[in-house]
Design a protein that fits this description.
Number of strands: 6
Number of helices: 12
Largest sheet: 6 strands, parallel
CATH architecture: 3-Layer(aba) Sandwich
CATH class: Alpha Beta
CATH topology: Rossmann fold
Number of domains: 1
Order of helices and strands: HEHEHEHEHHHEHHEHHH
Distance between the termini: 36 Å
Helix content: 25-40%
CATH superfamily: Alpha/Beta hydrolase fold, catalytic domain
Radius of gyration: 18 Å
Strand order of the largest sheet: 2-1-3-4-5-6
């Protein structure tokens, strides 16, 4: 049973949010003006912290402190939201003049209600990782592998599967979208089920989140973790200007079938 369980969990390609918390070892004195809060999703594993550590060094060179909390709990989105609020408070992120957020998928579901409630008054920008493919993964896991999904992720995966996205409404915050344009191995394996939930749309407006800019990356969700350093230039540009770089890809792929072709 243990071996079978391990194989199926591996096939999910969405390991638990087991990655370590990352933050500056010593609080800067004087504190810098900008901090970046990276909110991983259920795909965050311990091996993925390498990319986050590398970006931490890159961001530090640009005068930005990076914090990566392990905030997702097994008890659901409300519990995760409470843990995130405590992390923000305990690490005194209100010390910074400007707080920037990069939210992987579950991060967006978690932080938006906090931000709209005024709990993060120094929030300056938020960049969301969005995917028409991966956002169906919790629903597929809950429907096709409910026991294994619960054993691995607890109630949170079911909350993600059933909770409608609540868009950020705070008007003073600059909002960017980085859209993944390829499906993960998990979505490919369950393509038939994924398509039963309706057509895929890569259009920026389809994510029901007002935004100031939107770019596409030719990555799937797993790759966005492992290749996070490649996203940093776009994220740095958005933090600095409220817009992504001039070289950012702003045209959606015309043919969805291209996304499903194996990489050469």
């Amino acid at each position: 049973m243990n071996a079978r369980f391990a194989c199926v969990v591996l096939a999910l390609s969405v390991t638990a949010c087991a990655g370590p918390t990352l933050k500056p070892a010593v609080a800067p004195v004087p504190v810098r003006s900008d901090a970046l809060l990276v909110l991983p999703g259920v795909g965050y594993g311990r091996d993925d912290d390498k990319g986050f550590r590398a970006v931490t060094e890159m961001a530090s060179a640009s005068g930005v402190d990076v914090f990566v909390p392990a905030y997702l709990t097994r008890s659901g989105l409300d519990s995760s939201r409470g843990k995130l609020a405590r992390f923000i408070r305990d690490n005194r992120l209100n010390r910074y003049q400007r707080l920037h957020v990069f939210a992987f998928i579950a991060g967006g579901w978690t932080i938006n209600p906090l931000a709209d409630a005024g709990a993060i008054p120094n929030l300056a920008t938020i960049t969301y990782d969005r995917s028409p493919y991966q956002e169906r993964a919790p629903r597929i896991a809950a429907a096709k592998l409910p026991l294994l999904a619960w054993l691995r992720f607890g109630s949170t995966i079911f909350d993600l599967a059933t909770t409608e996205y609540e868009p950020l409404r705070a008007a003073h915050v600059k909002v960017g979208l980085i859209v993944e344009s390829r499906p993960t191995a998990f979505i490919r394996k369950h393509e038939t089920t994924a398509r039963e939930y309706g057509p895929f749309s890569l259009d920026c407006d389809s994510f029901r989140q007002r935004h100031d800019d939107c770019v596409y990356v030719s990555m799937d969700h797993d790759e966005l973790y492992t290749r996070f350093t490649e996203v940093w230039p776009e994220l740095r540009a958005f933090i600095s200007t409220g817009r992504f770089s001039e070289t950012g890809v702003r045209t959606a792929p015309v043919d969805d079938s291209v996304a499903w072709r194996p990489r050469k």
